[in-house]
Amino acid sequence: MKPPTNISARASASAPRWRKPPAISAAVRSGDLVLRGRSEPLRAYEPLPEALFAAPATTQYSEAFAKLEAGDIAAMPAFAALVGMHADDPLAGFHLRRLLNGAKGVRMQLE
Predict the structure, then answer these.
(1) 3-class DSSP state for residue 78?
(2) Which domain, by its residues, includes 22?
(3) What is the Cα–Cα distance from 69 to 76, expressed in whole angstroms?
(4) What is the pTM of this model?
(5) Any domain includes 83
(6) How many domains does the chain have?
(7) Is residue 25 a part of any domain in this protein?
(8) CA dist., res. 9 & res. 43, Å (int)
(9) C-alpha neighbours within 13 Å on the C-beta side of residue 93
(10) Do the domain assignments include residue 22?
């Protein structure tokens, strides 16, 4: 499986002629990235083909992400369950590792 590709909300909104690849029809939120030298986060998304977007695992991911965003302690078990059922999901695994290492919320400082 190839690594996820993220698209920032600002980049796609500021490029009115930007066209998503034909196989990509939807996206899920990856998090809010704060790049070195910036104070404002970029909202990032992982583009998905329609079939994958409509899958139950995507709904589970969205529910787990909402818990993470709300600061709910149930986010860690939600991501753990998702990774247990879909070990090949790199984004769910990424958030689970973040939580296991003490991270909180969806904002990520990139240095």
Answers:
(1) helix
(2) 7-103
(3) 12
(4) 0.78
(5) yes
(6) 1
(7) yes
(8) 6
(9) 9
(10) yes
